Amino acid sequence: MKTQAYLAFDGNCQEALNFYADSLGAEIKNRQTYADKKIDVPASYRDRLQHAELKGKGVHFMAYDAAPDTPLTVGTRIHLSVDLDDKHEAKELYEKLSAGGRIHHELREREWNALFGRFTDRYGINWMINCDLK
Prior knowledge:
The chain is an alpha/beta fold. The protein contains 2 helices and 8 strands. It is elongated, with a radius of gyration of 16 Å. It holds the Pfam family 3-dmu-9_3-mt. This is VOC family protein.
């Protein structure tokens, strides 16, 4: 069994995936627009992403621009968590992904012997960076 995150955006999925690909060193795969599908959506949705995946370097999640019949609300129930074992890589990733976002917990050493930081990125996605210091 395998579970994956599937992120929903409101028209800026391609922009967000470009940002994540650059920050995480990953590649956008299986990119499909609504124009590629026989789905009844307004013309303004045709160039939006109906499905895409981000893969590489231990990263694999899916994303799309929600269709008009799928209302989006900003929530905090899901966080993407990244576990690393190199503190320099953890700091670099934290700085890249949190740029332009909202910091909840600065990246610093925690009582469980790890660097940990939590933030919401510029696209409203929640992240946790955790780096084991053992």
